[in-house]
Design goal:
Order of helices and strands: HHH
Distance between the termini: 8 Å
Number of helices: 3
Structural class: mainly alpha
Strand content: under 5%
Helix content: over 70%
Number of strands: 0
Radius of gyration: 19 Å
Shape: elongated
Largest sheet: none
């Protein structure tokens, strides 16, 4: 296994991970930022106020984007397994 092949496989794997995790992480980031701004403006410092909206938003994104995420992971894994003979 050459160094170039290892770098290529690593970059493909990391890119697939970024694409699949992106919607969930961005949603949690945006909702967390909005809740933090709301807490600063209203001076409400309730811990559950920051946790529950993020949880609900992430679950909603998982339900909406879940099939797309699953298709991405399955197509990535299928392509990787199918290309194993070319690596030998």
């Amino acid at each position: 296994m050459s160094v170039d092949l290892a770098i290529m496989l690593t970059s493909r794997t990391l890119w697939a991970a970024v694409l699949v995790s992106g919607p969930v992480l961005l949603t949690a980031l945006v909702v967390g930022l909005l809740v933090s701004i709301f807490q600063v403006v209203t001076q409400i410092q309730e811990m559950s106020l920051s946790f529950v909206p993020k949880l609900l938003a992430v679950v909603a994104v998982m339900v909406i984007a879940g099939p797309w995420m699953l298709r991405r992971v399955v197509s990535f894994a299928t392509a990787m397994v199918a290309s194993i003979p070319s690596y030998l």
